[in-house]
Every structure is written in structure tokens, then in C-alpha cells.
């Protein structure tokens, strides 16, 4: 299953 | 960091440089929606609250500072330096119609119900629709300066390139960010009409004109 989102985008 | 993400960020940077360049060389902000630019300040300020409590990378830090400061600088140019060249009677889209529903959606659809998370989600939704006042203004005047269309193209391409970036990240890292993905697809979708005219007319050397 998918990992939780990582907030490293702009 | 992958190539789509990097090119996307570079397109975003380019869009800002094109816009500032346009204003300085023509000494005018004609054809640019102040409301859209003000919405971008709100987008960046509400999204980058994490500057205060989380360190991701130097790249990430510098870009966030750049986006906040350049968007404020653009507002300053429009509000003070080139104020006489801005026509508020053309810039009439009601931003409440965008901000209100985005905030309501952020309260309902978010990852965690806390202040910074809701602000982040709000900024993602608001960015998706922040271009509306600009598109509305072009619809009213029926035309745009070529340099303005280059700005909009770079701005649209930025989010479009994030889409393959999300696909790439799903396969390489297994990460999925449904809020950003859905909003990003909507955001890119709003540019499709514009892209069509841009690629078929402006890049062929014709003026950007909408059918009457």
C-alpha cells in the first residue's frame, strides 16, 4: 500500500 | 528529486522571472491580474509555514524564501511602482468565490485536522484555482501580450510537470499524495484552453487573440 505523503515539494 | 520535479520547479522560477522582466522592460503591469498575484502570496505564505519548524534541504529552503519574496515583490510593483498601468475595472473576478470554497474544502478534506495542515491543504486548493482572475481578465479583453502568454505557459507547465513527478514517485518511493495530485490535475486542466491557443498561435508567431 501507499506510503503517507512526504511534504518535500514546493 | 527527479527530472520532472526539477524541470517543473525551473519552469515555475522562469515564470516569475518572465513576469518581472515584462514589468520592468515595458514599465507596466498591463494585462496582469493583481488578484491572481495576490492569491499567490496567500498560497505561498500559507503553504510554507513549515519554514519555521521543519528543515528539508537547502534547495527547498531557498526556493520557499524565493517564492514568498518574489510574489510580494510583484505585488509591490503592481501596487506602487507601476500602479497607473493597472486597470482594476478589468480585474473584477471575486476572489471570495475562490478562497471561501477552498477553505471549506480544506476543513473537510485534509490529512490531519490541525492548523498548519489545514493551511497547507488550503494553499494546495487555492493554487489550483488562483489563475481564474487572470484567465477571466484575458477573456474580457480578448487578447494578451506575447510576453504575458510566455509567463502563463511557464506557470502552467510547472504544475503539469509535477504530474509525471507524482507518477515517478509512486513507482520509485511508493508515495501518494491524493490532495496534491487531484488539485494538480485540476490546476493543469484549467490551462488546457490556454495551452491550445499558445501552442497553435503564439508559438507560430501570431498574436494571442481569443475569438470574439
Structure description:
Chain B: It is a multi-pass membrane protein. Chain B: Keywords: Endoplasmic reticulum, ER-Golgi transport, Membrane, Protein transport, Receptor, Transmembrane, Transmembrane helix, Transport. Chain B: The chain crosses the membrane at residues 52-76, 149-167, 179-199. Chain A is largely without helices or strands. In chain A, 0% of the residues lie in helices and 0% in strands. Chain A contains no helices and no strands. Chain A is rod-shaped, with a radius of gyration of 8 Å. With 212 residues, chain B is an all-alpha fold. Chain B has one domain (3-209). Chain B is built from nine helices and two strands, in the order ααααααβαααβ. Chain B has helices at 3-26, 34-47, 58-81, 96-108, 115-129, 132-141, 146-173, 178-189, 192-200; strands at 143-144, 208-209. Chain B has a two-stranded antiparallel sheet with strand order 1-2. In chain B, helix 1 runs parallel beside helix 3 and helix 5 runs parallel beside helix 8 (178-189). Chain B is globular and about 45 Å long. The interface between A and B is medium-sized, with 9 and 23 residues.
Work out the count of structural domains of chain B.
1
CA-CA gap between termini of chain A: 24 Å
Number of separate helices of chain A: 0
What structural class is derived from the secondary structure elements of chain A? little secondary structure
- What is the CA-based Rg of chain B, rounded? 17 Å
Oligomer: heterodimer
Concise overview:
The complex is a heterodimer of chains A (10) and B (212). Chain A has 10 residues and is low in regular secondary structure.
List keywords for this structure.
heterodimer; A: about 10 residues; little secondary structure; about 0% helix; rod-shaped; B: about 210 residues; mainly alpha; two-stranded antiparallel sheet; 2 strands; about 70% helix; globular
Layout of strands and helices, then pairs:
The complex is a heterodimer of chains A (10) and B (212).
Chain A: no helix or strand
Chain B: H1 3-26, H2 34-47, H3 58-81, H4 96-108, H5 115-129, H6 132-141, E1 143-144, H7 146-173, H8 178-189, H9 192-200, E2 208-209
Antiparallel strand pairs in B: 1-2
Amino acid at each position: 500500500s501507499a506510503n503517507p505523503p512526504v511534504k518535500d515539494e514546493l | 528529486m527527479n527530472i520532472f520535479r526539477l524541470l517543473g520547479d525551473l519552469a515555475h522560477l522562469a515564470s516569475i522571472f518572465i513576469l518581472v522582466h515584462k514589468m520592468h522592460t515595458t514599465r507596466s503591469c498591463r494585462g496582469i491580474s493583481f488578484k491572481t498575484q495576490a492569491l499567490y502570496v496567500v498560497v505561498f505564505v500559507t503553504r510554507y509555514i513549515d519554514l519555521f519548524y521543519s528543515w528539508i534541504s537547502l534547495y527547498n529552503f531557498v526556493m520557499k524564501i524565493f517564492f514568498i519574496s518574489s510574489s510580494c515583490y510583484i505585488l509591490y510593483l503592481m501596487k506602487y511602482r507601476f500602479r497607473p498601468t493597472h486597470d482594476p475595472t478589468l480585474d473584477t473576478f471575486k476572489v471570495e468565490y475562490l478562497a471561501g470554497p477552498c477553505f471549506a474544502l480544506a476543513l473537510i478534506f485534509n490529512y490531519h485536522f490541525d492548523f498548519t495542515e489545514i493551511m497547507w491543504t488550503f494553499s494546495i486548493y487555492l493554487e489550483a484555482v488562483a489563475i481564474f482572475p487572470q484567465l477571466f481578465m484575458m477573456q474580457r479583453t480578448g487578447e494578451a501580450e506575447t510576453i504575458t502568454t510566455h509567463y502563463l505557459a511557464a506557470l502552467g507547465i510547472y504544475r503539469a510537470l509535477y504530474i509525471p513527478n507524482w507518477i515517478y514517485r509512486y513507482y520509485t518511493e511508493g508515495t501518494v499524495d491524493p490532495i496534491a495530485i487531484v488539485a494538480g490535475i485540476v490546476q493543469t486542466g484549467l490551462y488546457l484552453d490556454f495551452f491550445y491557443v499558445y501552442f497553435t498561435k503564439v508559438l507560430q508567431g501570431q498574436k494571442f487573440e481569443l475569438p470574439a
